[in-house]
Amino acid sequence: MTDSPDSPHGVGSPRENDPPTGTGSPPGTGPRLGVDTVPEGDVVHRSALRLGRALDGRVLTRSDFRVPRHSTADLTGRAVLETVSRGKHLLTRVEGGLTVHTHLRMEGSWQISPAGRRLPGGDVVRLVLANAEWQAAGVRLSMVDLVSTEEEGRLVGHLGPDLLGEDWDETEAVRRLARRPETSIGVALLDQRNLAGIGTIYRAETLFLAGVSPWRPVGAVEDLGAIVSIARRLMDANKERPSRTTTGDLRPGRGTWVYGRAGRPCLRCGRRISRGEMGAQPQERLIVWCRHCQPEQPTG
Ligand SMILES: [Zn+2]
């Protein structure tokens, strides 16, 4: 695992959204979009940790912004202070009061390798940050921005409590969810203004475990706190795992209750898992659920 992004400190595994780099992946091949790799709060959190291990406290010897807006930006000579995640956003703070803001969306990743290795080909790299020892290549990032650190609030200030944040506040997350009682709980959980970090996988798994249909209006959910606390527990349990599981089973294909299992038998009741589309965000609308285990109306 010489190319593992975690190798600066020798922990972890090279799986997840960081295939070993330097081997020159063929153009157009991205990370496999599977249960393990779609960036939700846990993956973003781990990306921040891995970026931190490679970049924190080291002076940048290279910065290459391959986005038109910042193509002339140059951070060479500045030390990286830290990278933090806020929900699904990454904030890399550098000396001189600057912050690099990136977002992985559905298929982005940070690939970390020893400095000087070949970067992924195929025009997929949006940003390179490197020091004398390590290079971090932002691949297929949906957002690359450079702002003053003071402006971070403008970028992430709208977010609800971060499920993996040190300032996690369940009461506040519940309060925000409850503001729109007519919204379906499935839509409300993906709205990062309510709570930050959930994507389609954790939404589906959380609602299954809570026994609540994604289509049930927030106002008809008896215990929002229970739902929020399940989401937090699932994500926290996975934040340092290279392979995501919500069932506790790490074997391939056994890691989820409903996500990725549409049309197959429910692991609890044996009935067929349903799938549908929900919400307005074009990339985040797949919903899968069990009509039997997750009733649309509260039961007795
Ligand atoms: Zn079921």
Structural features, described:
It contains six helices and ten strands, in the order αββββββββαααααββ. With about 300 residues, it is of the alpha+beta class. It folds into two domains: about 40-155, MutM-like, N-terminal (N-terminal domain of MutM-like DNA repair proteins, Alpha-Beta Barrel); about 170-290, Helicase, Ruva Protein, domain 3. Zinc ion binds near residues 266, 271, 292 and 293. Zinc ion (ZN) binds near residues 266, 268, 290 and 293. Its EC number is 4.2.99.18.
Features:
single chain, 300 residues, alpha+beta, N-terminal domain of MutM-like DNA repair proteins, Helicase, Ruva Protein, domain 3, 2 domains, four-stranded antiparallel beta sheet, 6 helices, disordered N terminus, binds zinc ion
| Strand residue percentage | 15-25%
User: What composes the largest sheet?
Assistant: 4 strands, antiparallel
Mean model confidence by pLDDT: 86
Q: Total strand count, please?
A: 10
Ligand list: zinc ion
CATH topology of the largest domain: Helicase, Ruva Protein, domain 3
CATH class of the largest domain: Mainly Alpha
* Main sheet strand line-up: 1-6-7-5
Structural class: alpha+beta
- Give the overall shape: elongated
What is the architecture of the largest domain at the second tier of CATH?
A: Orthogonal Bundle
- N- and C-termini, Cα separation: 54 Å
